[in-house]
């Protein structure tokens, strides 16, 4: 399939999800893949709620893109923040950057700043949508486009699973979709500022996330039985 055919397939999958598994929500991190989904949902699939998790440690470029999207698209973007008391207690005990010290501390931070807000965002939903792609990492090879998400007790749709990076960028260029400025500085994946960095050409896109940890251990709990992180 070329990009136009894949786009038609994408719209069809999302519209089917909307009609069979509403209420539905799209978890948008404002990375390149998620901008494809946001553009399609804004234009063709109006009943899928768009939300993002503001961990409190997002890069300025992501906040700038949120503002651009709010001006450009006439759809609500729901923003979920972590529980203030939980963040305060963790930072008091571990320091603001305590996630660098051990994987256990890093996972605690991800749990408070990402997993708990995700659970809040998905409460009462029958399905959710992500921008995961198979070629992003070895740990995403066994994903399915649609599967039952046992952790969150709802259907999970990964409609870009078979899209290549070049196809994502072809869509963004063709439809003049805004994207995160960090991509122009070598960031393949967009996450929290202190835990994400640029990758070298040809390097695994996930290499820029939690680069101080072993690749096989990279997970944050958003996709627990898939052993990967958003
Ligand atoms: S990615 Fe880093 S800053 Fe963000 S929630 Fe996880 S450990 Fe905390």
Beta-strand content = 5-15%
Our measurement of the CA-to-CA distance between the termini, rounded to an integer number of angstroms, reads 26 Å
- Classify the secondary structure makeup into a structural class: alpha/beta
How many β-strand runs? Answer: 6
Number of helices: 6
Write a structural description.
This protein has about 230 residues and is α/β, with parallel strands linked by helices. The protein has a single domain, classed as Rossmann fold (3-Layer(aba) Sandwich). The chain contains six helices and six strands, in the order αβαβαβααβββα. The protein has helices at about 5-20, 30-45, 60-70, 85-95, 105-120, 165-175, and strands at about 25, 50-55, 75-80, 125-130, 145-150, 155. The protein has a six-stranded mixed beta sheet. Strand 2 (about 50-55), helix 3 and strand 3 (about 75-80) form a beta-alpha-beta unit. Helix 2 packs across helix 6 (about 165-175) and helix 4 (about 85-95) runs antiparallel to helix 5. The model is unreliable at about 225-230 (pLDDT under 50). The site of iron/sulfur cluster has 13 residues, from helix 5.
What is the gist of this entry?
The chain is α/β, with parallel strands linked by helices.
What's the structural blueprint in terms of helices and strands?
Blueprint: H1 3-20, E1 24-27, H2 32-44, E2 48-53, H3 60-72, E3 77-80, H4 84-94, H5 103-122, E4 127-129, E5 146-149, E6 154-157, H6 165-174
Parallel strand pairs: 1-2, 1-4, 2-3, 4-6
Antiparallel strand pairs: 5-6
The protein binds iron/sulfur cluster (SF4).
The site of iron/sulfur cluster has 13 residues, from helix 5.
């Amino acid at each position: 399939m070329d990009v136009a055919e894949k786009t038609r397939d994408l719209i069809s999958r999302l519209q089917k999800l909307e009609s069979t598994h509403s209420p539905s929500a799209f978890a948008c991190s404002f990375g390149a893949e998620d901008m494809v989904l946001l553009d399609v949902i804004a234009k063709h699939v109006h009943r899928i709620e768009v939300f993002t998790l503001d961990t409190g440690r997002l890069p300025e470029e992501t906040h700038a893109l949120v503002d651009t999207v709010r001006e450009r698209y006439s759809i609500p973007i729901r923003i979920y923040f972590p529980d203030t008391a939980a963040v305060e207690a963790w930072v008091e005990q571990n320091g603001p950057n305590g996630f660098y010290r051990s994987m256990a501390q890093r996972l605690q931070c991800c749990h408070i700043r990402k997993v708990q807000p995700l659970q809040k965002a998905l409460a009462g939903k029958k399905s959710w949508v992500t921008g995961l792609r198979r070629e992003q990492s070895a740990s995403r090879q066994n994903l399915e486009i649609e599967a039952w998400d046992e952790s969150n007790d709802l259907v999970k749709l990964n409609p870009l699973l078979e899209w290549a990076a070049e196809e994502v960028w072809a869509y963004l260029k063709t439809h003049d979709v805004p994207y995160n400025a960090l991509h122009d500085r070598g960031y393949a994946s967009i996450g929290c500022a202190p835990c994400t960095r640029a990758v070298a050409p040809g390097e695994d896109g996930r290499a820029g996330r939690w680069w101080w940890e072993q690749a096989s251990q990279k997970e944050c709990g958003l996709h627990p039985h898939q052993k990967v992180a958003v």
